[in-house]
């Protein structure tokens, strides 16, 4: 019974495949970096290192590094249950899926910020942290917006975040964010 339920979840709820990406035609060089094309592992690892360095030197650093799956084709993205409309997508604190158009350091930094926020406040942190906080922080570090956020909204989030950020001490950043 349990095996049937797991198989059903694997088949019908494709994002669960992010837990075991190597069963979906991607190669993982370690727990954190996977790529659809083995020949692209070196490029994927370089992007990962560059993005992680930006985050680790910022206020948004993460405690546990994210798992990132780099897809070069739409078929790869769809195997994990998503459309390739987004350059990249953060799925809670489980993984980041990078699509064919998302192989850019800024895009990965933006997604790693969301991962960092998710890992601190939970996957469904919408009731705990305002959207302007997560998007404003991501924009502050990358100057790029999320795929599903309009530029007008992004500008407003940036203004709200910067106003709030000026009022907090760096050492109390995350505690202050919890109080929002």
Q: Explain this structure to me?
A:
Helices cover 46% and strands 9% of the residues. It is α/β, with parallel strands linked by helices and 180 residues long. The protein has one domain. Strands 1-2-3-5-4 form a five-stranded mixed β-sheet, with helices on one face. The termini are far apart. The model has no long low-confidence stretch (mean pLDDT 82).
Key descriptive features of the protein:
five-stranded mixed β-sheet, alpha/beta, 180 residues, single chain
Could you provide a short overview of the structure?
The protein is of the alpha/beta class and 180 residues long. It has helices at residues 2-12, 41-56, 74-79, 105-121, 131-142, 151-165, 173-178, and strands at 27-28, 33-35, 68-70, 88-91, 95-98.
**How are the strands of the biggest sheet laid out side by side?**
1-2-3-5-4
What would the principal axes of the Cα set say about the shape? elongated
Q: Taking all residues together, what is the mean pLDDT?
A: 82
- SSE order in H/E notation? HEEHEHEEHHHH
User: Which residues sit in consecutive blocks of at least 5 with pLDDT less than 50?
Assistant: none
Beta-strand percent range = 5-15%
**Structural class by helix and strand composition:** alpha/beta
Helix segment count? 7
The structural domain count equals 1
User: How large, in whole angstroms, is the Cα Rg?
Assistant: 17 Å
Largest sheet: 5 strands, mixed
* Number of β-strand runs: 5
Helix content: 40-55%
Distance between the termini: 44 Å
């Amino acid at each position: 019974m349990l095996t049937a339920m797991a198989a059903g979840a694997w088949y019908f709820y494709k994002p669960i495949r992010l837990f075991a990406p190597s069963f979906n035609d991607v190669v993982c060089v370690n727990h954190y970096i996977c790529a659809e094309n083995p020949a692209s592992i070196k490029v994927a690892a370089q992007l990962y290192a560059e993005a992680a360095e930006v985050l680790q030197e910022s206020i948004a650093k993460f405690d546990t590094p994210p798992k990132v799956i780099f897809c070069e084709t739409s078929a790869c993205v769809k195997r994990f249950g998503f459309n390739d409309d987004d350059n990249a997508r953060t799925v809670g604190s489980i993984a980041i899926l990078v699509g064919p158009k998302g192989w850019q350091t800024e895009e990965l930094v933006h997604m790693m910020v969301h991962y960092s926020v998710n890992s601190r406040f939970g996957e469904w942190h919408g009731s705990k942290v305002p959207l302007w906080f997560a998007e404003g922080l991501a924009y502050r570090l990358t100057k790029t917006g999320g795929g599903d956020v309009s530029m007008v909204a992004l500008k407003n989030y940036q203004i709200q975040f910067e106003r709030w950020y000026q009022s907090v001490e760096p050492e109390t950043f995350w505690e202050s964010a919890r109080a929002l």
